[in-house]
Amino acid sequence: MADEVLRVEGLHKHYGPLHVLRGIDLTVRRGEAVVILGASGSGKSTLLRCLNFLEMPGAGRIHLEGRLVGREARDGRIRYPNRELSALRMRVGMVFQQFNLFPHMTAERNVMIGPMKLRGLSEAEARRVAAANLEKVGILEKARSYPAQLSGGQQQRVAIARALAMEPSMMLFDEVTSALDPELVGEVLLAMRQLREDGMTMLIVTHELGFAYNVADRVVFMEHGVIHEEGTPQQVLLNPQRPRTRDFLRSHT
Ligand code: ADP
Ligand code: MG
């Protein structure tokens, strides 16, 4: 469908004998924010890492903007040619719990480096792109600061700007506020909320249930590598149908 940015069908992932993703089906439409909840170890990070090809997916299919990613071999398995992967990673931005900014570069430089190296932008163009994206996350005034001069919340917003500067089709967020001091969580969630309002397509792993309730179009509850329950935030958070979802919510509120 034209408005589908991501469609995942029957995705599996093994680590050796460990069957971590056991048939994930998930669609994210343009402009949608989908929140993934689930206990530690349920496979949330593995799913996001497969969608950004930091991990090679096992069986199953991933469609990005209506196109199958990789090539289907005769045996029906999908091969992911190496040369396609860097282009794919540009189309799917990812932000992690650990911000991993380059410590010897200013915030602005951290955001400029990807567009210059991977999108071929000139220094001047990259500077404009950096300014626009630092502005989007409300941190333009820190453009010339080094990561060590920024709070965790500010660093995480720079990391978001850095991902946005690649002009991805969608953004993946993996517990981006989990490493922050509690008083810094709000500013990062606010920046993500603003992105949602700007129409960015987002797939977000978080334990922030208030954020999920207020910002998500859909909430997905993962359990042991499958999607156990999904629906609107009202359905999943206020009226969960399955006992495991209820147990999870009880232990997180
Ligand atoms: P979550 O993000 O929901 O906490 P993960 O996707 O990180 O879950 O992990 C799911 C399962 O896969 C866990 O049992 C974890 O130990 C295992 N796992 C994750 N990454 C690896 C890896 N690189 N090698 C082996 N096992 C892994
Ligand atoms: Mg995780």
Automatic annotation (TrEMBL):
Tell me what topology the record assigns in the membrane.
Answer: Peripheral membrane protein
What keywords are assigned to this protein?
Amino-acid transport, ATP-binding, Cell membrane, Membrane, Nucleotide-binding, Transport
Task: Write out the GO MF terms.
Answer: ATP binding
Entry's localization field: Cell membrane
Residue ranges of domain ABC transporter in the record? 6-249
* Name assigned to this protein: Amino acid ABC transporter ATP-binding protein
One of this protein's Pfam families, by short name? ABC_tran
**InterPro entries per UniProt:** AAA+_ATPase, ABC_ATPase_HisP-typ, ABC_transporter-like_ATP-bd, ABC_transporter-like_CS, MetN_ABC_transporter-like, P-loop_NTPase
Q: Which family does it belong to?
A: Belongs to the ABC transporter superfamily.
Classification via Gene3D superfamilies: P-loop containing nucleotide triphosphate hydrolases
